[in-house]
Design brief:
Chain lengths: 172, 511
């Protein structure tokens, strides 16, 4: 899968000057399979906003482990997809000056500013940014709504067969 | 205690690391086309080897968990897209191909399309017996009132109230329990498909079928196809061995994307540069109607009713959009609904009261399967304006149907979402249109990349499915179709594969 076109590489190179300041607890750091620490921190911050709840009671992205799931998904993806996703996260983090005329990087913005920036990003005139955001959103939705704890949000009743169902021609 | 019957499919991993096999025919792919060809050829007494890149899964693997089945049953784990990312392309991967996850729609090729193609031996009258035989094989039968789940019934009500042309669709299912998880593989083995029927039948007739084997290159000798070089894949998809199959004929059934990419990778003669071009996808869009009462659209049989009011295959009709109900489990719907954050979650809370309608275009746009510098497949496809206009008609009329069916409002998932609450506001859809990158698009019917035709300058294979330049190389999947066909292709792929298999057998002297 080509998550992002090669055209984004130039944009990433222009804005990815900042490094450092990305802290992650050792246990999470040890679990990472595809993402670097910085990429994980950016993804986790984006997932928190993309999956922000409308009311109390919905599991948070952190509770469901969305960033960890996406990290695992990427670990099983082909190298080009991992590379493209890394570029996307780099652009998301450091594209604030170009995309939204903001001086602070994405993870340093407050939640309201992050939402506004994500909206700008997702509505960009550049189709590659719009589609990049769509890919990020899809992976976050995959990581969230796969978890049975989230199904109460939408009233989904889930599978009709239990795990370990041996297959057959009638309902269990 | 009697021993369990042998599995019809073996993993290529059982073979030596550097293996060589001989057969009369090697078939690449085990979806509708490949499985049908393998069965027909084996039943004619030919020694057949079939190779499948994906794994061999059975109903006990189909656990209805959306995330796990996306990874298990779909190419690129459900994340395949056109090169510009505008269109999400869902294709099956594994024994049975897309017949494992499709919704069982069986709709014959329209007569007008066949007449337009004007292929020798390919008239509606000549193909009718082949279609009938395939439909008997697969227990194809029309759906009826009992099959209508609330999502489909609301759609039917809307179509009926508007006086639009509509009707029940035919499906290939038997003993269906209506679980509603068709697109994640049937846990109840009710799909009368390639995986359940044709693959075991091919094996019973003597075909050797290997999963986890990726065809890399078609080999030739003295201008004829002579076999296939392949890679055996480990469980994590890495190369684990090499396989060389030497055969008198090679039959491609790896889909309009996979077969075309294999032909391109093989560097076969292509003096008119036709291979991979002419890609059609049937791109589609969807929209959601919100009702006062519960729909629970994921339950029951999907896609049992259709609206053909805006689909007319007469030349120049200008009506090229097919409208039908659709639904998704939560991950699919969440990805398609616009926005993010709290607003998005508020939309998800409507899930049980939503009915979904999709519109698919019988596309004129011609894309292309190509290879990048590393030899990886690319799907180049830029939706043309006439096709976009058709999809806009589909959105508008889909919204009209939902409103007629009683929807309080219709959500059109543009990048900047549109909410329609009355017929008077439908012209807002006309103003917005249906443009790539502004509304999610999905395609599930790639076709036409190795098209049939009498003229070698305008086609890749002849009217029987044999390559114009490389004798002994045959195509038996959706790549064959010279144009978009405007209807779900599975029953036509089965049928054309049956037809081509007869020609292959004849060419090898066993017909």
């Amino acid at each position: 899968m080509a998550l992002l076109g090669a055209g984004l590489a130039t944009g990433v190179a222009l804005v990815s000057g900042q490094l450092g300041g990305y802290a992650l607890d050792p246990a999470t750091r040890r679990r990472l399979r595809a993402l670097g620490v910085k990429e994980y921190v950016v993804l986790r911050a984006a997932a928190r906003r993309i999956l922000a709840a409308d009311q109390p009671g919905a599991p948070s992205a952190d509770e469901v482990g969305v960033a960890d799931y996406v990290d695992g998904w990427l670990a099983d993806a082909d190298p080009a997809t991992r590379r493209d996703f890394g570029r996307l996260l780099g652009l998301l983090e450091h594209g604030t000056p170009l995309i939204a005329f903001r001086r602070r990087r994405f993870t340093d913005l407050d939640p309201a500013a992050q939402d506004a920036y994500l909206r700008d990003f997702s509505h960009s005139r550049l189709s590659a940014l719009r589609e990049g955001f769509a890919a990020l959103k899809s992976l976050c939705m995959l990581g969230y709504y796969r978890d049975p704890r989230t199904w109460a949000v939408c009233g989904y009743e889930g599978p009709t067969v239990p795990r370990g169902w041996a297959g057959g021609e009638s309902a269990p | 205690m009697s021993a369990a019957p042998p599995a019809p499919v073996q993993s290529g991993r059982i073979l030596p690391a550097q293996a060589g096999l001989r057969a009369d025919v090697v078939v690449v792919g085990t979806g509708a086309g490949g499985a049908m060809a393998a069965r027909e050829l084996a039943r004619r007494g030919l020694d057949v080897i079939a190779l499948e890149e994906g794994g061999y899964r059975t109903p006990r693997d189909f656990n209805q968990r959306e995330d796990e089945m996306l990874a298990l049953l779909f190419a690129e784990r459900g994340a395949r897209a056109t090169a510009d990312l505008a269109i999400h392309v869902l294709q099956g991967r594994g024994v049975g191909g897309s017949t494992v996850h499709n919704t069982n729609l069986c709709k014959r090729m329209p007569d007008a399309i066949l007449e337009q193609w004007a292929l020798e031996g390919g008239s509606p009258r000549e193909l009718a017996p082949l279609y009938q035989a395939t439909e008997r094989d697969l227990d194809v039968a029309p759906m009826d009132w009992q099959a209508l789940n609330p999502n489909n019934d609301r759609f039917r009500v809307g179509v009926s109230k508007l006086g639009y042309r509509g009707g029940f669709l035919a499906h290939n299912r038997r003993n269906c329990v209506g679980s509603g998880f068709c697109e994640l593989g049937c846990s109840f083995n009710a799909k009368q498909n390639a995986l359940k029927l044709l693959v075991p039948q091919a094996a019973a007739a003597g075909a050797r079928i290997f999963s986890d084997v990726r065809a890399e290159r078609i080999t030739t000798a003295a201008g004829r196809a002579s076999g296939v070089e392949a890679t055996v894949l480990s469980p994590d998809g890495r190369p684990a061995g090499r396989l060389q199959v030497t055969a008198r004929a090679v039959v491609l059934g790896a889909s309009a994307t996979g077969s075309a990419a294999l032909v391109l990778r093989s560097g076969l003669p292509d003096p008119h540069q036709r291979a991979g071009r002419n890609l059609h996808l049937h791109p589609g869009v969807a929209l959601a109607g919100v009702f006062d009462d519960e729909i629970t659209g994921w339950k029951g049989i999907p896609q049992s009713y259709e609206c053909t009011e805006f689909l007319d295959f007469s030349p120049g009709s200008g009506r090229r959009v097919w409208i039908l109900p659709a639904f998704a489990h939560p991950i699919g719907l969440a990805s398609a609904l616009p926005g993010f954050g709290a607003d998005h979650m508020r939309s998800m809370r409507l899930y049980r009261r939503i009915a979904v309608v999709a519109a698919m275009v019988h596309d004129e746009t011609a894309g292309r399967v190509s290879l990048d510098d590393a030899g990886r497949m690319r799907l180049e496809y830029r939706l043309g304006e006439p096709d976009a206009a058709q999809l806009a008609v589909g959105l508008r009329e889909g919204a009209r149907i939902l409103l007629a069916a009683g929807a309080r409002r219709v959500l059109v998932p543009y990048l900047r979402p549109l909410e329609i609450t009355s017929e008077a506001k439908l012209d807002q859809i006309d103003e917005r249109g249906a443009h790539p990158h502004d509304i999610p698009m999905t395609a599930v019917h790639p076709m036409s990349t190795l098209p049939m035709g009498h003229d070698p300058a305008a086609s890749v294979v002849d009217a029987r499915g044999q390559h114009h330049q490389v004798r002994g190389l045959w195509v038996c999947d959706g790549s064959l179709f010279p144009t978009s066909i405007g209807v779900p292709p599975q029953i036509s792929i089965y049928t054309f594969a049956r037809r081509s298999a007869g020609f292959v057998a004849d060419s090898l002297g066993t017909g």
